[in-house]
């Protein structure tokens, strides 16, 4: 068993955004080809606290070599007020020969990286004909921090960055960090989400909202909205857009904005394509609605497994992490072999 902690995961992934985007792209392609198994996520909720939850995401990736395992990720929004990250996670990888767990990996960095990489990939594909001249971020937490890093690699450093958060102090702190990362970028903080939506043709929304609170009427024509937190948009806003998802069956669950739109219309005709199809070279269908393009990825566990496999293999090659040889039961035959032989007197 290889135990890989937070610092090692960062050491492997930080500064390698292009490679992470490619890993995510390949996982999406395999999923589109039917070479994955991604059961529905399991949501553990608490009767005395509706805001908190822990989610289990099992998945199999039919890559070469294949990989399988599960991400167990918690979301406790009040952690932000304590100075802690909202989400924490662990990923278990299992041997496909024996089924035994062979790696446990700290998962929050992987989870944020795969979310940001998927968003950056979608933005790269959807703006290929006309790159945005700036970027607006709604929600100034860890996910949009990573989105900014990955979009800078996938596209280019934005000439202008507009920020909004329900907590102005968090937005100002984000602006300070962003200025260090992007010294040539003009950065401004605005007081409303509508101002951010109107500022640029590329917008990323990553908040802790549990109920819809945004329309898209403020968006510029041909905007691409990365709707990463999934519950910010009113159903009518979803229905006014061309919608790109990672998997319709996964995203239309758990009262996401798209789930509410499905309940409102009785179908999923408002979903136009998937990230996997776009990555495979398909074009976004012609506009049958005049609104923006909205990308709503539920976050497939297979992306976590793909990145966890990369982290595990890289860490093992570099001699990083902590190896525990007796985590799983030791076979009796191995114990007998290991015992010293005794000569008869």
UniProtKB/TrEMBL annotation:
Q: Where is the signal peptide?
A: none
One molecular function GO term is: oxidoreductase activity, acting on the CH-NH2 group of donors, NAD or NADP as acceptor
Its lineage reads:
Bacteria, Bacillati, Actinomycetota, Actinomycetes, Micromonosporales
- InterPro entries from the UniProt entry: NAD(P)-bd_dom_sf, ODC_Mu_crystall, ODC_N, SbnB
> What's the protein called, per UniProt?
2,3-diaminopropionate biosynthesis protein SbnB
Superkingdom is: Bacteria
Which Pfam families does the annotation name?
Answer: OCD_Mu_crystall
Origin organism is Micromonospora peucetia
- What is the gene name? sbnB
Q: Which GO terms describe its biological process?
A: siderophore biosynthetic process
Offer a single GO CC term for the protein.
cytoplasm
């Amino acid at each position: 068993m290889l135990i890989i902690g937070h610092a090692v995961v960062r050491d492997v992934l930080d500064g390698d955004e292009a490679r992470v985007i490619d890993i995510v792209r390949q996982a999406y392609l395999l999923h589109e080809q039917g070479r994955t198994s991604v059961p529905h996520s399991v949501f553990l909720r608490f009767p005395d606290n509706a805001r908190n939850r822990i989610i289990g995401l099992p998945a199999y990736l039919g890559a070469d070599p294949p990989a399988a395992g599960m991400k167990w990720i918690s979301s406790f929004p009040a952690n932000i007020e304590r100075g802690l990250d909202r989400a924490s996670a662990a990923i278990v990888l299992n041997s496909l020969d024996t089924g035994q767990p062979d790696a446990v990996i700290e998962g929050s960095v992987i989870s944020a990286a795969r979310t940001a990489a998927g968003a950056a990939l979608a933005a790269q594909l959807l703006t290929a004909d006309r790159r945005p001249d700036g970027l607006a971020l709604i929600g100034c937490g860890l996910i949009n921090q990573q989105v900014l890093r990955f979009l800078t690699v996938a596209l280019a450093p934005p000439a202008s960055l507009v920020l909004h958060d329900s907590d102005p102090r968090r937005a100002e702190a984000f602006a300070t960090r962003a200025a260090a990362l992007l010294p040539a970028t003009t950065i401004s903080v605005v007081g409303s989400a509508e101002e951010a939506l109107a500022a640029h043709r590329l917008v990323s929304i990553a908040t802790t909202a549990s109920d819809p609170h945004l329309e898209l009427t403020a968006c510029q024509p041909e905007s691409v909205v990365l709707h990463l937190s999934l519950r910010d948009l009113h159903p009518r806003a979803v229905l006014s857009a061309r919608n790109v998802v990672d998997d319709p069956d996964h995203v239309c669950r758990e009262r996401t904005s798209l789930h509410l739109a499905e309940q409102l219309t009785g179908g999923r005709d408002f979903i136009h394509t998937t990230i996997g199809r776009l990555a495979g070279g398909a074009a976004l269908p012609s506009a049958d609605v005049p609104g923006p393009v909205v990308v709503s990825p539920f976050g497939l566990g297979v992306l976590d497994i793909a990145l966890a496999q990369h982290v595990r293999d890289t860490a093992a090659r570099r001699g990083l992490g902590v190896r525990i040889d007796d985590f799983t039961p030791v076979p009796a035959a191995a114990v007998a072999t290991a015992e010293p032989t005794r000569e008869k007197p």
